[in-house]
Batch of 4 targets.
Target 1
Amino acid sequence: MTPEFVVALAKQAIILTIMLSMPMLGLGLIAGLAISVFQAVTQIQEMTLTFVPKIIAVFLGLLFTAPWMMEKMMAFTTNIITNIPMYIR
């Protein structure tokens, strides 16, 4: 196992992590921005108002993207487990 291989494997893991987290982070960002605009327009400065819509948006995003996320994670894990004999050499 060479240092280049370890770095490449870590790079794949980081890219997969970023790719899997993007839908939820994006939805949370959009929900937070929409609530901030709503608060600025109506001048309601309630701090707890932002949490519930963000939680709902992230939960719905997770609900809809969970099959895709599981497929990506299982493919990555299967690839690593299948290639264990190659890693030992």
Target 2
Amino acid sequence: MTPEFVVALAKTSMETTLLICAPMLGTGLAVGLLVSIFQTVTSIQEMTLTFVPKIVIVFLAVIYFFPWMLQYMVDFTTQIMTSIPHVIR
């Protein structure tokens, strides 16, 4: 196992993690921004108003993007499993 392999594996792992988390984080950010704008315009300062829409939208994003996320994780895991014989040498 070379240092280059370890660095490449760490880089790929971080990229995979960021890509899998991006749909939920992006939708949560967008909904949070929209709710904040709504609160500013209407002068409503209810703290629980931000949580419920974010939870619902992030949950829907997980349901919608789950097949893609699962396939991406399976591909990544398969890639790691197939590279094990090359690491042992």
Target 3
Amino acid sequence: MATSSDIRKGLCIRYNNDIYKIIEFLHVKPGKGPAFVRTKLKSVTTGKIVDNTFSAGHKIDDVRVETHKFQYLYNEGDMYHFMNTEDYSQIQLMKDILDTPELMKEGEVVTVLINTEDGAPLSVEMPAHVILEVTSTEPGVKGNTATNATKPAVVETGAEINVPLFINEGDKIRIDTDKGQYQERIKE
């Protein structure tokens, strides 16, 4: 058993007869009244996101998990196939438990959280950033750079990202997987 002070991003807990992963949290200590922790929880079974507030010292039932490195192979509709990089066993996961499946390209190595009690995969954690090639975007309009102007661009995985005007087709860009935003252009 853990308490609300142990809450951190990525922690898996039992809540309302389901297993949830904490995707955001904020410790709040108001001037009046007791402290509390405001959280955003994502169900690992349904993918549903709920907001919850835990009072200070509240007991939470954390789930013991192991992390394993898996390589993304391919997807068939909503089923995504991964291979363990140590023993080459393969697993299939539903699209719902993936955080940003649109940013995964084949061969990407991700971290899979596995429940130690029953061996069931709970969640997939992407690397902090991925490098993808821009496959299509409109050319930038010269002189339209007074503000932080952006334009939509489609990357090789099919995801659409807003990028600065100087990005062209064929450029490789670094994308923050947490927010799904452009970070920088990669020089080759």
Target 4
Amino acid sequence: MLTASSQFKTEKPSKYLAQLCKHFADKVEVSYTEQKGEVTFPFGTALLHNKIDHLEFHVEAPTQEELSQCQSIIESHIVRFAFREKLEHLKWE
């Protein structure tokens, strides 16, 4: 399984975690609490963790193409939801 991680510094990590999870729950399997969320896509999984001053993202998938797809979906949604914070992209490791 391939993995990648990123984080987004924000004063509102719990807000964005809930917003992302609620949005994805209309389309795929999601479980979440105030502190963490898990989104299960057909091609991989995204784990979200609410920290004091940031939101962490961990994605995993069986192939590089599917991992890139997970990264792209998470990134495009958080960039759109956090537009007031001027987020342009995530740096994945």
